[in-house]
Amino acid sequence: MSSQRESKADHIRHIMETEGDAVGDNTRGFNDGRYESVAKLEDYEGLKDEAREIKEDAIERLPELIDQVTETIEENGGTVYIADDEADANEYIAEVCAENDAERLVKSKSMTSEEIEVNEHLESRGVDVVETDLGEWVLQLAEEAPSHIVAPAIHKSRAEIAKLFNAYFEPAEELETAEELTMFARKQLGELIQDADVGMTGANFITADSGTMALVTSEGNARKTVAVPETQIAVAGVEKIVPTVEDLQPFIELIGRSGTGQDITSYISLLTPPLDSPTIDFDDPDTPIAGEDDREFHLVLIDNGRLAMREDEELKETLYCIRCSACSNTCANFQSVGGHAFGGETYSGGIATGWEAGVHGLDSAAEFNDLCTGCSRCVEACPVGIDIPWINTVVRDRINTDKEPNMEFLVDGLTPDTETSGPDLQKRLFGNFETLAQMGSAFAPISNWVAQAGPVKQLLERVAGVTDQRDLPAFQRTTLVDWFESRDRIPPIDPDRKVVLYADLYTNYMDVERGKAAVRALEALDVEVLVPSVSGAGRAPLSQGMIDTARTKAERVSDQLGPYVDEGYDVVVIEPSDLAMFRADYDRFLPDEEFEPLADNSYEILEYIYGLVANGADVDQLHVANGTETVAYHSHCQQRTMGLDEYSIEVLNRCGYDVTTSDVECCGMAGSFGYKEQYYELSMDVGSNLEGQLRDADADHVIASGTSCTDQIGDLLDEEPTHVVELIAPR
Amino acid sequence: MSHQIEDTYDQFATEAARYGVGVTEVSPGKVSDAIVERIELPAVGIELPWEDATLPESVETEPTPADIEAAATGVTAASLAIADYGSIVLRSDTDGSEPVSLFNDLHIAVLDRADIVPDMEAAFEWFGDELRESRDSAIIATGPSATADMGALVQGAHGPKQVEVLVVS
Ligand code: SF4
Known about the structure:
The structure holds 2 protein chains of 2 kinds. By secondary structure, chain A is α/β, with parallel strands linked by helices. Bound molecules: iron/sulfur cluster. Residues 258, 321-327, 351, 378, 381-384, 386, 388 of chain A line the site of iron/sulfur cluster.
């Protein structure tokens, strides 16, 4: 193993061992809570659309809104400071503290304040900084970084926190329960807040019309932080501004549900500072508090790369992020490792790639960007509909571009991509999977023997980082297209519909059986089927951040399939990740007049069969269940995001099968991810949840929809599952 | 209309109960007695804005920092309630409603039944006009303060552990 890949694998293994269980329990709990909580909304999708529109509009008009909010807050009696970068912000904040002779500043939780590392800066100026959010306080005592953007200490168990407190404070009686720990912390922090000189908060949103900041919290520490001291500083990214108070409503309804699965958090503070609430001077305990106080308020609006992100067509969407954490919680890889592996300098989870690239630069993003496998489960979870996988792909492409091209001759022969610069060897190998598959098939079975042979596997691992723990896919000498052309075929007389079955790379070169099954099933339902030779969809290069190569593939596919679509053929796709290309990703690569007809006329195989059956085709032409036959079914991540898993389940039901489905977000293989030696163990850890569910189901058949899932389940259960269509196709 | 108000009240009470918040309907004259039944002493409070509803003698209505620190109960008015979330809206003022509703283990909030709105949309229509006009601050409070940061859900993190709402009709 290369030393770089080895140290990455070691790091991930260590985090999984020490923090994986706590992070997994918590994030899965949040994720389940999200599904439950959003289901209670009458119009969840409508609310998300509204939230998205507000953010699009606000970021579009950002310079104008910055001016407006500045005017409003100054009219209210506060001060606004626009800080270009971290140093600028920290300098200003330190000055405010110095002017107030501040000895202690108390803080409520704010990721933006962590981005600028204000604590370290103030401490170097002699100000005592105390985090009052219980999770943040734990981390401050433990000198650790957050592992989650909303629940920063989820990687620590109750027992670890008890150990920390007992060692640090040596209380008369050892603390043990969550209740005891909480009450102890409340008391300690309560005293620290009492004689604080400055209170610092973040802001989830700021309204330009009234200068109101919304803070979404549960503990009450933010309220105290604001209520007690005379001086308040709020630190917020410029992107937090929304035009009006009414614009807050969809966000308030979505943020808790999306993040921790709470319909609403205990407190939504709508603060229009300076506050008219009296300060509480505990040094003067006997004077009634009521009355007007001379409060001071500073809003520090942080640019730190955000205005440049706004000008960057690809990164701009990041600014819509409301930092709810749904994309972390729903991410199978994040559930296994948390933010200490899946995160950069400040931010963690899928969207962190955008934030880190924007505020800290590509290097910070490069550390963890590979952990986004593009499964797309986060896209439907995101309350503002950010295409998080795309941001990861773009940043990956830029990281590749930053590198010197790889000139090794062997690799260039195997990797005829259109990249102008240098993705590393591992990425190029997987990105050029189409060429590998063509050659593997041409030389099968010899190529398979060679590939499975010890020396070659070792070479692949050493040079390209392909794990030797997995069997490599076996290529078929006779491709699906070859088989289809050479068979004696009697086309249905007077077919109901005409279909082009897309021979994706996996089906054409490796899983030929599922392709044959698809042809049999379609023909049994009176459909005319063609299986022409068509280019790979570009999923493989896209997943490696090789966008130019993916675009070239998209153009080829469009040239090849377009004429069929024009002639009234439907395009049927077996591999869900390729269908997702046709339906979504190609929108970025093709002109509308090419993208739309292809997207509108492409179907997943079981979606298509469902349509035929629902319109009167005879289900008994398929292979129906013999008595009670049970099926354990794992649908594919992208198939679920497209909302297509239901069709497979429904067709199976109509064929008489008794179906149990898995509810894990992703199998963990995700294309090439699980083949990469540095991620193999993580991939298997993610898969272990799926394994448990499939074993518990104890069904007659284990079936799946994606090639990756099939490979992964094969490795997990030591038994290769089949595709849905192979179960229901007439034999 | 009155039917709708009935539903709104019931919905508010049901939703608030999910967070362990007790909701009781009382007539204005009985507010003081109802507070006495629930209060734990010492108590601090802010005078209610309705003529015929008053606080009991035992509540200190001009609290000092020492009173706030010593009190077990804080009594304040709520300006609004949001039925489908079981939330109440607490407005900040120069009297000190914000600290009085925050620092003590028990918060008793008194609400006018006419101020229950059905949903968040209605609440934000109200906030929009109010906040643009007055530039005031308010808290949407739902249930007691809570944290899960110490390994399990605990009620009463930095704020109240228990909330009681008296609805005046
Ligand atoms: S990207 Fe979307 S899901 Fe992720 S934290 Fe931001 S708003 Fe939430």
